[in-house]
Amino acid sequence: MSGILIKDAYALIDGTTDRHSIYITDDKISGIDKEPAGFKQDTMIDGSSFLVIPGLINAHTHSYMAPLRNIADDMPFMDWLLKGVNPVEDKMTGKDAYYGAMLAIIEMIMCGTTTFNDMQMHIHQTTKAVKESGMRAVISRGLVGSSYDRNDVRIKEALEEMEDGKDCDRLSFMLGPHAPYSCGPDYLRCVADLAKEKGLGIHIHLAESQTEIDNLKKEHNCTAIEYAQKAGCFDVPAIAAHCIRVTDSDIEIMKEHNVSVVTNPASNMKLGNGFAPVPKFLEAGLNVAIGTDGAASNNSLNMFHEISLLALIHKGVALDPVCIGAEECLKIATENGAKALGLEGVTGKIKEGYKADLALLNLDTPSMIPQNNLISSLAYSANGSEVDTVIIDGRIVMQDREIKTIDTEKVFFEAKKIV
Asked: What share of the chain is helix, strand, coil (3-state, %, to 5)?
C-alpha cells in the first residue's frame, strides 16, 4: 500500500473551499482531515499554496483529432465536416491516432482534466494511450451505417476494443453511433438493441445544427431527439452531445429517459451552431455535463475555457446574470460529468472512498490573487495554467507542471511529423 498526504490545502468539497488535509491510499481518497488507520505516508505535498479540486471531466471529445487543430477554421458546419475535416481524417493511420490521443491527453492533464469521454475511429490506439498515460477514459468507437447489421465491421471493432480494454480499470466503454445524419434508423436500432443486450450506454451527437434538424423533419418528420428515442437509444443510459436545436417536447423526452446532455460551448459557437438552452435543461432537472469536443472544432481541450464560457454566455443570451452560477458550472464539469459517464460514486468529488482523481492549482499566480472567492476564481479567472499537480487513480501523473507518465518531447515530435 502506498500513501500520499496533501497537507493543509484549500479544497473544493461540497461547494466550499476550506483548508483540509487529504489522505490517499493506493487509488482512493482514504481520509479527509483524519488520518486513516494503518496509513503509511510515502509522499507529502505541502498544500499551503494550493487549491485542490476534483479532476475535471471532459464529457465529450475526440482525442485522436488533436493533430487536426486549426486545419479547417471559419467554415460553415457541413463544409467544415465534409470538405475540411473528413478528407484529412480519412488519411490518418492508427499510429497518427495514437499520437493524436497522446497529444490530447497531455493538453488535458496540463489543464486539470483527469477523465474524458471519447468518440474515436481507430481501435486500440486511444485505449493504448490511456493505459500508458495513467488517464481515465470512457471510449466509444464511432459507428455509422444504414442497415440492421450485427456483423457490421465497426460494431465488431467496438466489441473487440472492449475486450482489449478489460485489463485496465481506468477504461470503460460505450457504443457510439455518430449522429442521425450518419446512422439510418435501422442501423441506430441495431446499435440500441446491442447496447441493451450488452448492458452498455450510448454516446451520440444530437441536434447539433439546423441543417440536421431540417433534414430530419423533411425525411422522417421528427426532431433529432425523437429520432433517437424511436430507435431505442434512450432505453439505455445515454449521453447526447450538443443538443442545441431542441424543443420543449424534446427536453421532456430526455428528462423522461434520464438522458445526460453534454454542452460544448466553444465548438458550438465556432461552427455557428448556436447555444444549447442549458438553463432550460437545468430547470427541467436534466443531468448536464460539459465537454470540449475535438481539437478540430474547438480548437482547445482546455476545460477551464469551457467552464468560463458556460458561466458567461448564458447570462448574456438570457439577459439574466443569475441564470447559471460559478458553483453550478463547476459541478457540471465534475460531479455531473461523472454521473453522465456511469462513474457516479467513483470520481467527480473529493470524498472518502472515491478515486483519487485530483488537480492542484497554484494559488500564487496572478489569476488566483486575491483569494476573495475561490469558486468564482475557478469559473471566471482561472485559465488552466494554474494547474501544478495532477493525481489520477492515486498516481501523481504531473507535478510542477511536468508530465511524469509520457515522453512529451517524443509526442510533440511525432505530432509535428504527422502534420
From this structure: 40, 25, 35
